[in-house]
Amino acid sequence: MAGKKQFDMDAALDAAMIQFWRDGYADTSVDDLSRATGLNRSSIYSSLGDKDTLFLRCLDLYAARYGEKYDAALSCAASEPVAAVRAFFDVTLERIADPELPDGCLIAQSAMAVPVLSPSVAAHAKQALGRQHSRLRAALKAGRLTDQGAEAFALHAAAVNQSLAVMSRAGAGPAQLRAIVGVTVDALSRASRP
Predict the structure, then answer these.
(1) Global pTM value
(2) What are residue 193's phi and psi, to 5 degrees?
(3) pLDDT over 80 at 50, yes or no
(4) Residue 188 and residue 193: Cα distance in Å, rounded?
């Protein structure tokens, strides 16, 4: 039928997200996105937007996909805060271990690229990073940590989570990453004892 889009929008967004995740915003060209999605440049612009718009859509897709998993992991925080934080890190470690996915984290990469991003894209990347901190703080407060304790551990856990992505991209193995998580979970366990 004339005028009807002949591609799967979800598959195209997923392919674009993987391309940005693999190479980063600055090193991904529209030609790279065309190869990744199988769409020509004009189809990308007309259906998915310019590079900034497409990147924002991909960042939102990534944040929603993994945000749901983080929320599920933290859902038991009120009764088991230590187990919830361990489950939170397990989401990251499972993503890192998945051979079908690029190394690292699209949000961590985006945060590191803030100096080269447009102001609106940089603000969006910072918001995505901030949502992780907010998610952790809310879960830790539900787990009966003081406001100050919840804030400190949320900031620390968010930083550790992002560093796992960076370290995996730099070649750290699963045992090293689990050891890093262990230190954080042990510290939280000691801090949350009555």
Answers:
(1) 0.88
(2) -70, 140
(3) yes
(4) 9
**HSE-up (13 A, CA, CB side) for residue 52:** 10
In the block, residue with structure tokens 């910072």: 126
Q: How far apart are CA 78 and CA 42, in angstroms?
A: 50
Residue 96 has pLDDT above 90, yes or no: yes
For the chain, helix (H) and strand (E) counts, in that order, are 9, 0
- Residue 2 per-residue DSSP state: T
List Cβ neighbours of 122 (8 Å cut-off, separation of 6 or more).
Answer: 114
Cα dihedral 128/132/133/137 (nearest 10): 140
Burial of residue 97 (CB within 10 Å: 0-12, 13-18, 19+) is exposed
pLDDT attached to residue 6: 66
Q: Which two tokens stand for residue 12?
A: 């195209």
- Condensed to tens digits (0 to 9), the pLDDT of residues 125-154 reads 999 989 999 999 999 999 888 999 999 999
Q: Are 107 and 132 in contact (CB under 8 A)?
A: yes
Report the Cα–Cα distance between both ends of the chain, in Å, rounded. 67
- Joined together, the tokens standing for residue 135 give 């998610």
Question: Residue 167 in contact with residue 176, Cβ under 8 Å?
Answer: yes
Q: What pLDDT was estimated at residue 169?
A: 87
Q: Are 142 and 62 in contact (CB under 8 A)?
A: no
Nearest in space to 164 (alpha carbons), one of 175, 156, 172:
172
- Per DSSP, 25 falls in state T
